[in-house]
Specification:
InterPro entries: MurNAc-LAA_cat, N-acetylmuramoyl_amidase_3. One of its GO terms (biological process) is peptidoglycan catabolic process. One of its GO terms (cellular component) is outer membrane-bounded periplasmic space. The protein is of the alpha/beta class. It has seven helices and 13 strands. It has a six-stranded mixed sheet. Strand 6 and strand 7 form a beta hairpin. Helix 5 runs antiparallel to helix 7. The longest helix has 25 residues.
Amino acid sequence: MGQHDGYTRLVFDLPRTAASQVKVAAQSVTVKLDVTLKAEQGPLSAPGVTAYAVAGGTVTVTLAKGHAQAKVSVLPPAGGQAARLVIDVPTSVAAAQVPATPASAQSAVAPAAVTRPVSTATPTLRPRVVLDAGHGGNDPGAVSRWVTEEAVTLDVALRTRAELLKHGVDVVMSRTADQHLSANKRADLEARSRLANTGQVSAFVSIHINSAGPSAQGIETYYFGQSLAGSNRSLAVQENGGGSVGEELTRQASNLAQNLLGDILAQAKVAFSRQLAQRVQSRLIAATGAVNRGVKTDTFYVIRNPTTPAILVELGFASSPSEGPRLAQPAYRERIAQALARAILDFLNTK
């Protein structure tokens, strides 16, 4: 379940594309499908809806008082996602004028006005976020006289988790100690990426720090896509493992980015990731006063797969004589973590 500007969205995974009949009456939406689903039911706490129930091939959503409209779509499998039943319940005055739409009248294109995806089988009341502390174990990442990347990213991730938990957000950590997920870099990045594809995940944030010449400084946030023409690909290669492994994984990710251009659902996912990246970048710059290196796209292997909004943030340069010492300070890391958590909460529409 997701709350968006003007509507609440519920998404149910289906075993296959299904024919459907839709009825909106007596403050409920009933969708009859020609597939059998696991029986379940429960309350909902979101604008426009109060409960849901699944029995056999029937999905029923109880509408809140004053709500009598809904838009229903059945989307076919695409972009690695299963077929889905999507129910949008208008919550604004303007949106409430949209009539109920039978799924048979919908095209295979994802419904418009989506702000973030939901790749879940049932609604959830607690958003879940994956925090990936970059590197660790046999891969220390960037190392300077002031800091080591694996230590900074873990500390910031743990601090961010603590703040998100205070606001009722479930947090999945890729690591909670100085360890790798696999000694093989490809397998390590695969394992991190897969964390966003299990259960009900609202956002995936991979945390890193940068390294370059002593004059380089600033914060930048990436979402998955082809790098800008003329940009330096060394960062993607470096974060993808470095050396020949990093080159190969970057090449594979680049090919995938090119293939995604024609996939409507994949491009919608990219749009969600861009929104998350923009919020994170804005909050971090405001909190730290660091040089704003902007929101960018690149072919980072770890964020190529997730079916939820996924970003990679570079929190500064370990190699910078000004930023390196700041990144070593617990107080500065706390400022970063607070800003990162606030950006995620903004994106999730959570106070």
